[in-house]
Specification:
This protein has 13 helices and 17 strands. It is α/β, with parallel strands linked by helices. It has three domains: about 170 residues, MoaB/Mog-like domain (Molybdenum Cofactor Biosythetic Enzyme, Chain A, 3-Layer(aba) Sandwich), CATH 3.40.980.10; about 80 residues, Alpha-Beta Plaits, CATH 3.30.70; about 150 residues, Alpha-Beta Complex (Maf protein), CATH 3.90.950. The strands form four sheets. Strands 2-1-3-8-7-6 form a six-stranded mixed β-sheet, with helices on both faces.
């Protein structure tokens, strides 16, 4: 059985919502990849009694705990004091830690405030974790069954200390058997639809199934235990992907990392040596922004007058007329930009409909390639930013589906 690990975040700004605790999510991913079973995320504000109580609880139930925050020089940084009181230790002045803190300020030609001396006070018996990226040294210690590592909450410092100091210590202290996380990435389909489509697939009890709905995709996650047979793993993933069909744009964790939708399109476009020009309306420039820096994107036009009620083309709401208009624009854009492909996005709905979260718009996408026209139509609802993002993704997904179909 894998050792258990908890993430403990300290800071009033976290529990009050002023700061989003991205540290906990990142640390959990690292821990799971190493082979730990992450059992809890806990956050406590600048409350000494709350910190002391939680430290004692964790020491009795977890094999390991990574704690972030509360190591700064100010009065609300209570971690070292809380650890000492929770475990009956004294705080001792660490000369090496103090020298490192002073050197940090000397290198920047700044005087060291007297309050920073506090950061060199560490619990007796703790092992110092040198911080080469900031002023706050971390420390580690064992109490009860639990090995604790205390590191700064500043994300830049935290990640460096974990990767270069804490992770090697964890690998040497614990016997770890990491599982394999396989992520099936889809676009244009929701979590409930995914669950319904794969309901008939027999997933072994040893395999953990989960879903994550992100801004740009929906991920179906399969966590396989250590030593799971490769052939059975590949068969199960293939079976699920088959049920999800063309909504699948990439699979991470089997052989290579597919990346996000734009990364998949980038590889396909560069492999085939094709170029693209785009006209977008509902996505309002976001499609181009998602593809910024891509060498195959020759040009983009964002023009709100090209929506279904735009006066430039006097486009009616009739679907066939919309598609014909999109095709005319695609031909003109492809010729003007001398591109291999032209992608045109129109939508049905006026400005008021577009801004109304309770009113849907209908997206019309046309892709002109060397093999003619390819079309897609989708209905998108929700707040304006969701409509904008979905419009960009669904237009790009039409391009992705065409490119991947050519590879079969």
């Amino acid at each position: 059985m894998n050792p258990t690990l908890e993430i403990f975040s300290q800071g009033e700004e976290i529990v009050t919502g002023q700061t989003v605790d991205t540290n906990a999510a990142w640390l959990s991913q690292q821990a799971v990849q190493m082979g730990f079973t992450v059992t809890r995320h806990t956050a406590v504000g600048d409350n000494l009694d709350g910190l002391i109580g939680l430290l004692r609880e964790i020491s009795a139930r977890a094999d390991c705990c990574i704690c972030t925050g509360g190591l700064g020089p100010t009065s609300d940084d209570l971690t070292a004091e809380a650890v000492a009181k929770a475990f009956g230790l004294t705080l001792e002045f660490d000369e090496i830690a103090f020298a490192q803190i002073k050197r940090f300020f000397d290198n920047r030609k700044r005087p060291m405030p007297e309050s920073n001396r506090k950061q060199a006070m560490l619990p007796a018996g703790a092992e110092r974790i040198d911080n080469e990226w900031g002023t706050a040294p971390g420390f580690s210690l064992l109490h009860g069954r639990c090995w604790f590592a205390f590191i700064p909450g500043v994300p830049f410092e935290m990640r460096h200390l974990f990767l270069e100091k804490v992770r090697p210590a964890l690998a040497g202290r614990f016997t770890l058997q990491p599982g394999r996380l396989v992520t099936i990435r889809t676009v244009g389909i929701g979590e409930s639809d995914i669950q319904q489509r794969i309901a008939a697939v027999m997933i072994p009890d040893a395999v953990q199934l989960g879903f994550r709905a992100g801004i740009d995709d929906v991920q179906t996650k399969l966590l396989f235990p250590y030593g799971y047979p490769e052939t059975e793993m590949a068969s199960l993933v293939s079976n699920i992907a088959e049920q999800l069909g063309s909504a699948v744009f990439g699979i991470d964790g089997l052989s290579e990392v597919s990346g996000d939708l734009v990364a998949v399109i980038d590889r396909l476009m560069q492999t085939r040596k094709r170029t693209l020009t785009v006209t977008e309306t509902a996505s309002q420039g976001l499609l181009a922004a998602k593809c910024i820096g891509m060498p195959w994107l020759l040009g983009t036009l964002f023009d709100r007058s090209l929506d279904s009620l735009g006066q430039r083309f006097a486009v009616p709401v009739d679907r066939d007329d919309l598609m014909m208009t999109a095709e005319r624009i695609a031909v003109a854009m492809k010729k003007s930009a001398a591109a291999d492909f032209a992608l045109v996005q129109l939508y049905a709905g006026d400005d008021g409909t577009f801004h109304d979260k309770d009113q849907p718009i209908v997206l019309y996408n046309v892709l002109l390639t060397e093999n003619g026209f390819h079309q897609s139509t989708q209905t998108v609802a929700g707040p304006i930013r969701r409509k904008q993002n979905q419009a960009a993704l669904l237009a790009l997904d039409l391009l992705r589906r065409y490119l991947q179909l050519q590879e079969i």
